[in-house]
Amino acid sequence: MRVAASLLTAIACTLTSFSCGDPVRDQRIQALGGETPGVRHGPLHRPGQPCTLCHSESGTNSPEFSLAGTVYRTPTTLEPLQNATIRFIDSTGRQHAAVSNSAGNFYVSISEWVPNWPVWSKVECSNAAARESGSATPTTEMTSAIFRESSCSFCHADPAGPSSVGHLYFADDDSGLQKGACN
Amino acid sequence: MTPDRIVATWATSIALASIVATAGCSNYAGNSTATLSTPTRDNFGLVSSVLEPHCGTLDCHGSPARNFRVYGEKGLRARGGDKTGTATSESDVDATYESIVSIDPEVLARIFEEGGHDPWRWIVISKARGREAHVGGVAFSEGSPGDRCLVSWAGGMLDPASCNADFFGPPRVDAGIEGGTTW
């Protein structure tokens, strides 16, 4: 009798967990495909993908992110911009910053900062040449606000088109950028 | 009840049902279209330029997933060849106009005919002001330049000065405020 009850409970739990899933989200995650061979699950994985499909309250992976994305050097290449500082300011004036890693990925976990939408952002790429010349830190500011979407690549998906702005980039071309990372 | 009486009752019931069914299947003889007064498209470009930064990003009403769509530089484009991020075209303004006048059109027509009286009756304004549930929160507080712009247009007397006075951007943060630097 106890065995039967346990079995029924297990079946009920399994069915419940299936029925509580979000099929749209599940399909979008499935469409992303598997991990790139040779890249471990971690801060460098899946550049350019919508991070918070998984790294969110309703997602499957931790940590949960408030904002996350990938920044590239120019609109025409997928060369990551490393060590860039991505600054955010929310509607109440509170600010936060994240630094991009070698994949161009950056993220803000909810334990660090939860913004009050909308949020404005800008990317700074400090470099030795700018510092030596005493000029201001090269900065690119996002021209619109972020109202609710925590994954940058939700809007910044490739290719650019009538409903996408293309990947997030720092400069129109490489001419003003030092080779390598920001520093 | 005698058999004759039962047959008579059934016959009467069937006859009545047939009459009701026939009436239900008859064609609607009234006008199939109704004409509603709407605010003009002529000066809507100014209103659209206010709506775009407040409402028309890809993660909000600049998305095909919304009933009320705002087309333009910061979001969805009306023409397939245009990319998000390039200048708003007249086609975008046309599409935004068509979208906004189709939201709760009877109420908009009433407000227009009454010269802008009680504009909060229109769902676009009540949501923008945050008077009813709106994921994007308060887009225009009551009496703000953006609110006056939209309300004046809905009432048929556009106030261009209010439209031009609208500003949407990150809050000003002065150096020295806790946790922040000058944005």
Helix and strand layout, with pairings?
The complex is a heterodimer of chains A (183) and B (183).
Chain A: H1 2-19, H2 23-31, E1 65-70, E2 85-90, E3 95-99, E4 105-109, E5 119-124, H3 128-133, E6 139-141, H4 152-155
Chain B: H1 3-25, H2 44-55, H3 90-101, H4 105-113, H5 123-128, H6 145-154, H7 160-165
Helix pairs in contact in B: 2-6
Please explain how this structure is put together.
Helices cover 20% and strands 17% of the residues of chain A. Chain A has helices at 2-19, 23-31, 128-133, 152-155; strands spanning 65-70, 85-90, 95-99, 105-109, 119-124, 139-141. In chain A, the strands form two sheets. A four-stranded antiparallel β-sheet of chain A has the order 3-2-5-6, with no helix packed on it. A two-stranded antiparallel sheet of chain A has the order 1-4. The longest helix of chain A has 18 residues, at 2-19. Chain A is globular. The mean pLDDT of chain A is 88. Helices cover 43% and strands 0% of the residues of chain B. Chain B has helices at 3-25, 44-55, 90-101, 105-113, 123-128, 145-154, 160-165. Chain B has 183 residues and is mainly α. Classes of the chains: A alpha+beta (183), B mainly alpha (183). The interface between A and B is medium-sized, with 25 and 33 residues.
Mean pLDDT of chain B: 89
What is the string of SSEs of chain A from the N terminus onward?
HHEEEEEHEH
Query: Quick one: how many beta strands of chain A?
Result: 6
- Strand line-up across the major sheet of chain A: 3-2-5-6
Tell me the overall shape of chain A.
globular
The largest chain-to-chain contact, stated as pair and per-chain residue counts, equals: A-B, 25 and 33 residues
**Alpha-beta classification of chain B:** mainly alpha
In terms of DSSP E residues, the strand content of chain B is: under 5%
SS summary, helix count of chain A = 4
The oligomeric state of the chains shown is heterodimer
What does the main sheet of chain A amount to? 4 strands, antiparallel
What general form of chain B does the structure show? elongated
Rg of chain B is: 26 Å
Derived structural class of chain A: alpha+beta
Number of helices of chain B: 7
What can be said about the biggest beta sheet of chain B?
none
Radius of gyration of chain A: 20 Å
